[in-house]
Design a protein that fits this description.
The protein is mostly helical. It has eight helices and four strands; from the N terminus they run αβαβααβαβααα. The strands form two sheets. It has a two-stranded antiparallel ribbon with strand order 1-4.
């Protein structure tokens, strides 16, 4: 049989594992997991990896679309006084990130997952929810937005990609059976460390930005301190680091394609943000980069 078929071979014995992938397992084994479906092996395989291919294509399209023109929200929203269809920022944020990231992700994980009760699977689930409980519910409630509304297509344009990538990743961590020793595998440990590091950078940077604006203040200010002394968007950098850790931790194409999509979003937007700051603040530090200190 081909290696591909062996990799995703359905386990007809229920709790047994494929080719030692779920046994004790040597550290750094190429594939520390088995991914299979007891109901319909081929359908589960093709649906999952078909969606991953769609995710790669969407990431490329997203980068190309935003490389030349930033999405019109936040500081790049030039139609704040427009009568076009707009919705409340907080509700839009909760709907696009909170509902899908917490509720939708959890439903897929527990209802469709075959190994949602695995120790490492639970850790991965908790880390994902650690991010999205804050991003989808706490952040919208405490953020001091420059405008109370946003163009309707912005949350819709976030909701649809999120639905795709969240499904892929929840489907993966809910049904992938990692080998019994994966909790001390360097990829799992390193991935957690990278994820937590990015989470701290992201949270601290968001709070730093929030502190610049009083409740009645709608103006933008130049942030200083921490990584803001070196780059314009440390909040974006923190989130990119988070999802890089996720990709390493899960060791999956699902994690990789989600990280690539965040790169496709944040890399061009950070550059647009830097250019915006330089245009609107004549004393903006000339040596400050967009996303990566001293590099980009």
């Amino acid at each position: 049989r081909s290696a591909g078929l062996k990799m995703f071979e359905s386990d007809t014995r229920g709790d047994a594992c494929v080719d030692d992938a779920c046994g004790g397992g040597a550290l750094w084994s190429d594939l520390p997991w088995a991914f299979f479906s007891h109901d319909d092996e081929n359908a589960r395989l093709w649906v999952h990896y078909g969606l991953i291919i769609a995710g790669f294509i969407l990431a490329v399209i997203t980068y190309l679309a935003q490389a030349f023109e930033p999405a019109p929200y936040g500081k790049h929203d030039n139609e704040k006084s427009s009568s076009k269809c707009r919705v409340p920022q907080r509700i839009a944020h909760v709907g696009a990130d909170g509902v899908l990231g917490v509720i939708g992700f959890s439903l897929i994980y527990f209802l469709l997952g075959e190994h949602y009760d695995g120790a490492v699977n639970i850790v991965m689930y908790c880390l994902f929810e650690l991010h999205y409980i804050h991003r989808g519910f706490i952040h919208p409630l405490i953020t001091r937005y420059s405008d109370k509304t946003v163009l309707l297509w912005i949350p819709l344009g976030t909701f649809l990609p999120n639905a795709l990538y969240f499904f892929i990743n929840s489907d993966w961590i809910g049904s992938a059976k990692y080998h019994h020793g994966y909790y001390y595998d360097p990829r799992f440990i390193l991935g957690i460390i990278i994820f937590i590091t990015g989470y701290v950078i992201n949270r601290y940077s968001d709070l730093k930005l929030r502190s610049l604006r009083h409740s009645s203040d709608k103006d933008y200010h130049v942030p200083h301190g921490f990584l803001f002394n070196h780059i314009a968007c440390p909040n974006y950098l923190g989130e990119l680091i988070e999802w890089a850790g996720w990709a390493v931790m899960t060791w999956s194409l699902a994690g990789l394609v989600w990280w690539l999509f965040t790169c496709a979003t944040f890399i061009p937007r950070s550059r647009h943000n830097l250019l915006w700051y330089r245009e609107h603040f004549k004393d903006y530090p000339s040596k400050r980069k967009a996303l990566i200190p001293f590099i980009y």
